[in-house]
Amino acid sequence: MASSTGTLEKTTTICSGDGAVAADAAVETAATLKSPLLEEKKCDDGARGGVKRCCERQYELVGYDALPAFLKHNEFILDYYRSEWPIKQALLSAFAVHNETINVWTHLIGFFMFLAFTVCAATMVPMESGVSASMATSKTQANNTGSRMVVMTMGYGSNGAAVAVRALRNVSVESELIAVASLSAGSQVARWPFYAYLCGAMFCLLMSSACHLLACHSEHASYVLLRLDYAGITGLIVTSFYPLVYYTFLCDPFFRTLYLGFITLFGAAAVAVSLMPVFEAPELRWARAALFTCIGTSGLVPIVHKMLVFGARPEAGLTTGYEMAMGAFYLAGVVVYATRVPERWMPGKFDLAGHSHQLFHVLVMAGAYAHYLAGLVYLSWRDVEAC
Known about the structure:
By secondary structure, the chain is mainly α. Helix content is 59%, strand content 7%. It has 13 helices and three strands. The protein has a three-stranded antiparallel beta sheet. Helix 5 (101-122) packs antiparallel against helix 7 (192-214) and helix 7 (192-214) runs antiparallel to helix 8 (219-248). It is found in: Membrane.
């Protein structure tokens, strides 16, 4: 009550007294009544030399126990967390050291790598003809049985980059020359499945980087970015099937449509499931891993079908080898992601580098690159032998 009475008396003096006295009292009142909100705003000016900006705030890294519930995903990573940082500081933290730095950059570098692949694919020019794929060399060799074989080297390149795919075929030189002539006169096979895969990979990598960089801002931001991250993973898996199915069954519309339709439906269902809030619960880590694994392993059906129909062709064997490598990388990544090793074995020792999610990112990049190489083989095959 005493403080309230004093305030009222000072206010009465300001309103009824002499102008000079009132002004002095107002200045005194403003100097003594300081608002915490005002202290957080920019308060430095040229008249106060040496006074630091009072709005500057040091955003410090915190430990796992200090995190809000929405940021607690891995109890084996104990320190170097960002918690509820403003967007500006979260963006700038891409160039700082914390437990998400490597997660951000592994997939951000991967995004730019696949962007370069996309530009390269869009600007591929033939070495000798007006179509996107051309015959670089055609040589005749003799095998140990005396029959003639042809080594076909397909050149795909831009700015000095080239990918050579060598296929040994038991056919005559005349038939190969006819194939070259028809290739030069014809048109290239559709590119959209290959570009769909590249776009799916870029979307996945970019959303992953954004999630790891900005999810620390707020619970709402974390919710939205995690959904985009899950959608990106699903998009990468689904679009990985497009080159495999489309180019393998280019001449069989029924199976081509069947496989493409099923994998697209599976992907849409996975995205719908990932929209449920419970999907991101830490205890459902295995469920998330199992869902994406099931979608990926469904690709074994068209691969087995491919080998049954085209097993004698070198392109089928080469693409299957790349696809098996891709699957092995992805499966290893899922196991590391679900088990949270090695940080499970030594909590706190891998907070900044070497923890499971970083290894998961590297394995995803390796798998995506293996499938990119398979896509180049598919293009070279179907550019020569389209239906």
